[in-house]
Amino acid sequence: MPRFWLLWIGCCWITTVAAQPQRVEIGAIVLTTESQAESVLQQLKAGADFAEIAARYSVGPGSTNGGRLGFFAPGDLRPELEQAVAQLDEGGYSYIVAIDNRYYILTRFSTVPIQAPEQKSSPLFTVLSAVGILFLIKLLWWLFKRYIPIRQFRRLNQQMYQLHAEGKVDAALEIALTLLEKNRQYFGDKSRETAEALSNAAFLHDARGDSRAAEPLYREGLEIARDRNAGHGSPAMLKFLNPLGDIYWGWGDYERAAQYFQEALDINRKQLGDGHPDLFQGHEILAQAYQQLGDIEKSGFHHRQVIEIAEKHQLENPAIVSTLNALAEQQRLKGDYTQSLALSLRALEMIERHTSEDHP
What we know:
It is built from 14 helices and 4 strands. By secondary structure, it is an alpha+beta fold. The chain has a domain at 2-110: Roll (Chitinase A, domain 3). Strands 2-1-4-3 form a 4-stranded antiparallel β-sheet. Mean pLDDT is 80; it is low at 1-6 and 15-19.
């Protein structure tokens, strides 16, 4: 709570002390025809000197002084001119402003704060100013302390990616584990940065064939991603769900693999919509998982989804042949030989389409 009040007082100081009204020094070139104004604007954009152009062409005040009109506070200029000035950066040129058969091209020379009448500061104002300055000092120190480790983390991440790309997985893993500990200490165990570090370390463990070490890291990262999204499915969870499904599949635990693959598919379906081509692989792996578990109904459902997506998007994938054959076998076991034969013929037709006639 004290930090909240310090932040509030600091913001009050910034808005009341630092944000003062400003006066802007304006220059103008005033011309009599629109075509001449367009020509002059092109010259300015090409790098011509504003003061020289003003002295040569301007028919307005300030032409002998490089086009300088003086300093103006908000509300001093006509609305058309003030609107054009408001869009200018220092040294930039405005669009052509037409007023009373004259054509203005404006520039902004400098900006100075409006000096308020001298008055005695109240004790409260003095306290607010002091606290505001203290707040800014603490904020700058906090940003500085945060910036240094983040630079170090980025450098280590770059080294880790480079080592992995060079095939030096053990060296990359060593850096990944160092980064994991540093992220825990600096950002906290439940932070997004720690979840990312867990994903990297788990991936490298898995890459060197140590799925037993990768699995708990993936699970911890998944719990962080789940908690940060209040239990709702989020794309951030996919980097943990799919690898966990692959690990349990490799261990022969098809039931747990199916749970993770199903959750990943549900998230993708929510993001992409039913029938999207990127759902093809998710349905395919779930069809195989449920087939391993002996759940013919669920396996058949996902096999049919694979075929529907393939037909809708005209996909040509070897997995479609396997899917057709698997569905044909399921229909045969149910005694529906007509449907089984039709599916087998579709699979054969696809094989023939992609092989030569003399293929064994």
